[in-house]
Hints:
Strand 5 (144-148), helix 5 and strand 6 form a beta-alpha-beta unit. Helix content is 42%, strand content 15%.
Amino acid sequence: MADYMKKFRIEKYAVVCGGLGLIGKEISMALAQAGAKVLVLDIDSAKGTDFEKECKGKNLGVKFIEFDTCDIQSCEKKMLDLFGRFTILVWVNTAYPRTKDWGDDIARVKSESWKKNVDMHMNSYCLLTKNAAEMMKKQGIKGSIINMGSIYGVVGPDFEVYSGTGMTSAPAYAAIKGGIINFSRYAASYYGRYGIRINCLCPGGIFDSQNKEFVKNYEKRTTLKRMGKPEEIASVVLFLAANAASYITGAVIMVDGGWTCI
């Protein structure tokens, strides 16, 4: 009989890019609870040190490493170093870099801002995915790579949820997340022959003390009538990372409270 709980154990190293974010922290803790030694990659060394101490106080194997996903030129060298020092079974891309004018209405978006956001976010995800898969391939590691997509990479935004809030959906976000989703499929098709699984998880709105009118509008639009929680994303990442999902690759998994089913 299969040991199903063992299928959710992760005995090697796992990397979480953007591991200090709202969702990234939960993913890091979920993987650590499953037995992984988690390398949290992010840019804020002070917050990273604090988070590492917090996790160690909970007996979670978490190590912070300063890493800027936007610095594409240096990423490959740093990744070579990481894969040379650690046996990395899981790589998660969850960083959310953006410019200061992020969230401008489409009519006001400047071309330079658009290009910079695409470069920082979509291009970094795609190149990190490619580099991680190549290094796993060379080391004979049948690993799992998980990219963070979004409902807005699959469907267009419902602008009614922003009514009365002064908020909108960033137009580049749709292009970025749509690109990440389909590149994940491409990479899954290419690297499947090496036993490397690549999947994309698409969260809906996650509650983070947003504008009250926005929250009310958003919750009406979902079938579960509420926003999501960071831990509800982390648990699906854990599933995709573990052997429990050993026959899942190239999947785009919606974790959205039913947003995209209606």
